[in-house]
Amino acid sequence: MSDVFPKWTNRLPLLVIVGVSLAGTAAMAGVWYYLTPKYTRVGYQPKQPVAFSHAIHADQLGLDCRYCHSTVEKSAHSNVPATSTCMNCHNQVLKEDPKLALVRESFESGKPIPWVWIHKTPDYVYFNHSVHVNRGVSCVHCHGRIDKMDEVYHAKPLSMAFCLDCHREPEKFLRDPKLVTDLKYTVTAEKQELDGKKFVHDWKVNSSQACSTCHR
Amino acid sequence: MRYILLILGLAVASVMIVAGKRGDMSRKPPIEMWDDMDRQYKLRPQTSANLSPDGRSSRLPVEGTIARGQRFADVPENTGRKPGTTNYVDTIPVAVTPALIERGQERFNINCSPCHGKTGDGNGITKKIGAMPIVATLHDPRIVGLVDGEIFGVISYGKGLMSGYAANVPVEDRWAIVAYVRALQLARLGTADDVPAEHKADLLKK
Q: Which pLDDT score is estimated for B60?
């Protein structure tokens, strides 16, 4: 009769409690670490149909971002350039190169190159490039060192927390709007503090944290 | 106890091996759980849409229509030509102010300097690396002699090997660039006699 429950079962409740809490902690840690845009988005680097390199065009050739992304200061959407923009140069440069075959084909047929969209906020978020760029928020804060990338990847999480980190204290990030496309720009902490305070004051910057700013 | 720890350890290790760490490169698009709000039935710019015949969400304007705010009137500011003719206007038809020239400088450096160089001498980066052999220098006497409207025309429609920039450079900015090109030409081809008398002294100081 005494052997229905063997002796070790006395420890069972303890084992269950320890086991469940350890497993629970591990699961929580996993959720915290993995189920965030810092993990899910950062590092996303799709294969693009044409091996276009920002490192060559933006860094080595020194093209300004706005040569190609020409609507970034005027509209919410920053355009990916039309094929005709590439052909401004590539009608002469690397005219026969197989790497550009698709570009020429697209130029002749008028069918856009199927670039893969990388930075893509959810449809319930309203984002606007022009307000940021015209107020001296540089591309580098939200896209990283694009000019060093051969293939573009998602460098920043672009999560709600990321947006709010800046919206709460924009003075830490603002710079002269003439320098927004200069991704190399560095500034000392003291100058940033002075500049930032000045810009926020002079331009009456209002980076609102109201929900309806970004969710309308 | 040992077994529980072992199983847990194995589970954690296998998750870490499969999932990697934050910031790892990946070719696969980010996972979107419950994506019904993330991706709604709405069209965003420059995406594909099977609603329209050419498969694009951004539609081309219907022929014969004018978008709000689009400039269409046959006036020199919009066309660079004398109304009703195909002759280019001689001078810039908008007020040339320091602000306009400054804007022109910025736009010139973005849109023109890759080929024509920051000073307009035709030695932009594309020529320097030998990728593009023929780029006009804007200080060529023939080009200096072009009327303002014709330079506006070159920016709008292109000429020879140069493509037009109408899609990327709005009309106002084209006049700003023309003004700046004139400033560059003056700076290059001017002589000491062009300097106003009251500034002559500054010239000698340098």
A: 82
8 Å CB contact of A77 and B45: yes
Q: Do the chains contact at B29 and A44, CB–CB below 8 Å?
A: yes
Rounded to an integer, what distance in angstroms lies between the CA atom of residue A109 and that of residue B137? 33
> Which whole-number Å values give the CA distances from A163 to A172, B12, B51, B93, in the listed order?
13, 31, 33, 44
ipTM of the complex: 0.88
pLDDT band, very low/low/confident/very high, at B169 (cuts 50, 70, 90): very high
pLDDT at B49 over 90: no
How many other C-beta atoms lie within 10 A of the C-beta of residue B98?
Answer: 8
* Residue corresponding to tokens 């307009």: B120
Contacts of A93 in chain B (CB under 8 A): 126, 131-132
Interface test with B, best of A34, A57, A103, A215 (most B CBs within 10 A): A34
Question: Within a domain: residue B95?
Answer: yes
- What is the domain range of residue B165? 76-191
**Chain A 80-139, residues with CB within 8 Å of chain B CB atoms:** 80, 82, 84-85, 87-89, 91-94, 112, 114, 117, 122-124
Q: What is the dihedral of CA B38, B39, B41, B42, to 10 degrees?
A: 90
Whole-number Cα distances in Å, A108 to A79, A102, B138, B156, B198: 21, 10, 30, 21, 57
Interface test with B, best of A39, A78, A149 (most B CBs within 10 A): A39
User: What's the number of domains chain B is made of?
Assistant: 1
Between A42, A80, A94, which is nearest B46 by CB?
A80
pLDDT of residue A70: 94
Evaluate whether A75 touches A127 at the Cβ level (below 8 Å). Answer: no
pLDDT digits (tens, 9 = 90+) for A62-93: 999 999 999 999 999 999 999 999 999 999 89
The per-residue pLDDT for range A159-204, each reduced to its tens digit, is: 999 999 999 999 999 999 999 999 999 989 999 999 999 999 999 9
Q: What's the CATH code of the domain at B128?
A: 1.10.760.10
